[in-house]
Inverse folding.
């Protein structure tokens, strides 16, 4: 449900832009996430990331790195 809300928010703030997807029958919304807890040996900062796909097309992604321990 969060993915649908994210799509609707995008449509609201970007009225002059658009995304076109072919109708392939059953459209899936799939999300992936990953986290690396203090994986950088130099500064021990953590990295997290996610991406969301609709019908095999990426619609949202983000990568963040903690600035402190």
């Amino acid at each position: 449900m969060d993915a649908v809300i994210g799509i609707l928010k995008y449509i609201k703030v970007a009225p002059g832009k658009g995304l076109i997807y072919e109708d392939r029958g059953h459209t899936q919304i799939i999300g992936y996430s990953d986290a690396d807890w203090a994986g950088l040996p130099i500064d021990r900062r953590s990295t997290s990331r996610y991406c969301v796909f609709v019908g095999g097309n990426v619609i949202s992604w983000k990568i963040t790195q903690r600035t402190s321990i």
Notes: The chain has one helix and three strands. Residues 2-65 form one domain. The chain has a mean pLDDT of 79.
